[in-house]
Amino acid sequence: MMRFTLPRDMYYGKGSLEQLKNLKGKKAILVLGGGSMKRFGFVDKTLAYLKEAGIETILFENVEPDPSVETVMNGAAEMRAFEPDWIIAMGGGSPIDAAKAMWVFYEYPDTDFEEILQPFSFPELRQKAKFIAIPSTSGTATEVTAFSVITDYEKGIKYPLADFNITPDIAIVDPDLAETMPQKLTAHTGMDALTHAIEAYVSTLNSPFTDPLAIKAIQMVIEYLQESYNGDTAAREQMHYAQCMAGQAFSNALLGIVHSMAHKTGAAFSTGHIPHGCANAIYLPYVIKFNAKNAAGRYADIARSIGITGTDDECVKLLCDKIDEYNVKLDIPKSLKEFGINETEFKEKVSKIAELAVGDACTGSNPRTIDAAEMEKLLTCTYYGTEVNF
Ligand code: FE
Asked: What is the structure's pLDDT at 361?
């Protein structure tokens, strides 16, 4: 038996944040990131709508990019003290992901972080609170997914948590919030969305329910990302919906090894983080070439849906060229070396990273199986920008 789960309600369109004034409840905690939502006036608006709804609200602010286990535990402690019946997370992927994990430890204080690392093993949520997600970036789609990525800084590892219990109850997809994204973030999050849709479409768990969402999302990203990056607000609105559709697809079809590699390299190097979407954008064409041995037909479907013609093999090649071309336009490097990762450090760490990436939760649904030795070869191709031919 398969399962397809999405939020119970989605509100979308410019100004849809206003829906908060119709919320029924007593207490809410608003989980926020670094301050841009406050600066642009969205926090004040949110608090005014919640006041109109008769809901007492406290803030949990300053969730860091790539939120830590410690932040999750601090937020959960605040929730236990305040006892909200709504958790409202607003901002980029980080505050929303952090709030999803906080929700688990709010409702189950005796649970250890290690206990929820096994996918689809969470305790039953919604005993104390329901969850609203309001994204301000157009990429992670965490507002509609069963996932959350939390970083263990001591171990230098990003953990992708997965369970339909943390699929939000309500998503408010208001493009006004996404207009605040800086240009670089627009590029990275847009390529993250494209990767979600492509990985979902070729996933071993693809289905008639997820395919149309993935294909439509890919078509919309190809049509609108460039203009959104250049600051066109109508294109940015369409990107906000496209990334959400990609999220609906991958939350149910899961992902593949582009994400396994991004998760395990994101926090691995001393030269600093590789932003998630940027890592995905770099790895995507290499992984398509690796996976094409098993999934050329599916990649060809994708290519044809965006107007590429030819045999399956030609379509795969032209699809990779299209992604390369997009990366150039969005100022995304072609390789990890070009990104600035130190060669000696890369060589030192690559075999361990390869092993961890093979063990990542996203590897299981990749269309071609991979072992640690092949993963090391693939990562080495992405470091030097060399051709994948194995
Ligand atoms: Fe992603």
From this structure: 86
Q: Which residue has the tokens 């049509």?
A: 223
Instruction: Report CA-CA distances (Å) from 301 to 3, 201, 235, 297, 309.
Output: 24, 9, 24, 6, 10
What does the CA dihedral 236, 238, 244, 249 come to, rounded to 10 degrees? -130
Name the segment(s) of the chain with CATH classification 1.20.1090.10.
183-384
280 C-alpha to center of ligand 1: Å?
7
Residues of the chain with CATH 3.40.50.1970: 9-178
Q: Ligand 1 centre and the CA of 247: distance in Å?
A: 9
pLDDT, residue 272, reads: 86
Q: Are 360 and 260 in contact (CB under 8 A)?
A: yes
Give the 3-state DSSP-derived string for 123-160, with helices as H, strands as E and coil as C: CCCCCCCEEEEEECCCCCCCCCCCEEEEEECCCCEEEE
Q: Dig out the tokens for 105 from the structure.
A: 């430890």
CATH topology of domain 9-178: Rossmann fold (3.40.50)
Distance (Å, rounded) from C-alpha 380 to C-alpha 384? 6
> Per-residue pLDDT for 4 more than 90?
yes
* CA separation, residue 158 to residues 189, 217, 271 (Å): 18, 26, 17
Q: Per-residue confidence at 60, pLDDT binned at 50, 70, 90?
A: very high
**Whole-angstrom distance, CA of residue 159 vs CA of residue 278:** 18
- Residue carrying structure tokens 């051709």: 387
Residues 110/114/118/124 CA torsion (nearest 10 deg): 10
Question: In terms of CATH architecture, what is 183-384?
Answer: Up-down Bundle (1.20)
User: What is the whole-number distance in angstroms between the Cα of residue 125 and the centre of ligand 1?
Assistant: 24
CB 336 within 8 A of CB 383: yes
- pLDDT, tens only, 151-201: 888 887 778 899 999 999 999 999 999 998 999 999 999 999 999 999 999
- 192 Cα–ligand 1 center, Å: 5
Euclidean distance between CA atoms 297 and 62, whole angstroms: 45
Q: What is the pTM of this model?
A: 0.95
Q: 283: CA distance to ligand 1 center in Å?
A: 12
